[in-house]
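INFO batch 0412 | record 1 of 1 | parsing
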Amino acid sequence: MNIYMNSPEFEHDVQMLIMAFFPGRELKVIVSDDCYFDNRIDNKCISDNKDNEDNKEFVSFYIGNVISFEVFENGISKAYMQEPITLTDRKLRKDQIKRLVYKVLSEHLNIELPWGTLTGIRPVKMVRQELEDGISDDELISSLKRDYYMSDDKINLSIDVAKTELDALRDVPYKGGYSLYIGIPFCPSRCAYCSFTSYSLSIYESRVDEYLDRLCEEIDYTINLFGRERINTVYVGGGTPTTLSPNQLDKLLSCIRNKTKESKVHELTVEAGRPDSITEEKLTVLLNYAVDRISINPQTMNDDTLKTIGRKHTVKQTADAFKLARKMGFDNINMDIIVGLPGEEKEDIENTLKAVKALGPDSLTVHSLAIKRAARLNTQKGLFTDYKSINSSGIMKMTADYAASMGMKPYYLYRQKNMTGNFENVGYSVKGKAALYNILIMEEMQTIAACGAGASSKLYIPSENRIERVENVKDVGVYLERFDDMINRKKNAVEKEEGRLFNAY
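INFO prediction complete | emitting tokens
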């Protein structure tokens, strides 16, 4: 489907909203003067682009003194709306434009989107900021309905998450502080849905120690650059950090603890992740370095699905790894599951939830499958044509109900492109076990200093409420070869924003 526009302004926002109504469809934006507003022809946006003759479906969109949006099927106009636009504030204009697009498509397709016109990754961020500014719940609910067409369920969820976030951070001096992310880009194997920077350990096994040496150098430099006393949380992710051997884990965690000892670190998380990478010896290392929180992630508790998505472990291995960690004394264990995995029906998802509940984790993260461009589910989609991916409001409610039955409340939320059912990812936890790092990074409340191949630092400028990104290269070999460049990128970015990172709240 083509989207014809007369201006690139709000191009991305319009495309994302239309994409939500046509999930899985390839949408191409064509910005051209051929799309113009003609008062002589019933006040409609007309496109003279000849490509239209060959398109069965397309939309035509005009932004000027009026907004005009029209849907064509087989070259025939099927839905149309236009209204004057007098707003000068860019955000307000954008919101008006998205509301018009939503109204046309919702009526034409007889579809209501649970998140309304919101297409961004962090819908809760806006809600939290409004609550911090002192708006009442009733006022907030009214504005979310009026301005964004959000459903009651998503409004209530957003408010609940925002309040839990604020409560969890009550005793954390995150203003003026920062968090440290450390990336271990190795995994036992690559899952079919994965788009993260991760490599099979067999490819780089001979260079892991070299990688850790450089990583520790980067950690040391980064902590000196951002301040040794300001670190609030440390998150070791990947990949799968427990792919490392016990000695390598010891080396990494020794480096982290030695270099952060001058700061009051409120939380140190290590993603144990894959159950097939967990051993008693490795868990002992984590305990020796006082790791506060680990994540043991089954994604599903159905063996057939595990085989389909390329996970080289069984349901029994997941349960055994969890029980071992609990027996050894870990009292903050998260589990991740994914809704919408190929071939799974509602009954399969409920089976996973029952098995997770029986184990009794301290937090549960429910992901709605998002098929990214680099994932095998996309690049090798021919291998998965026999498998459908499902999600629904009923399934998401079921996951929320199971979380509630485990004594958990939602504490963070984010969305992604191409999510099955156009839903969201939600983290649930029992009281006192919310992952502080997850809240801080998702809500963009402070700087995240990131180290390692594929890591992305996010410098938060509080006075402007904006994020400045500093990317490390993804390839492990290139990271090692261009290590000095990784250091200089951070140095230059911090110098550029000097005085605005921590002192402008």
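INFO post-check: The CA atoms of residues 391 and 421 lie 5 Å apart.
INFO record closed
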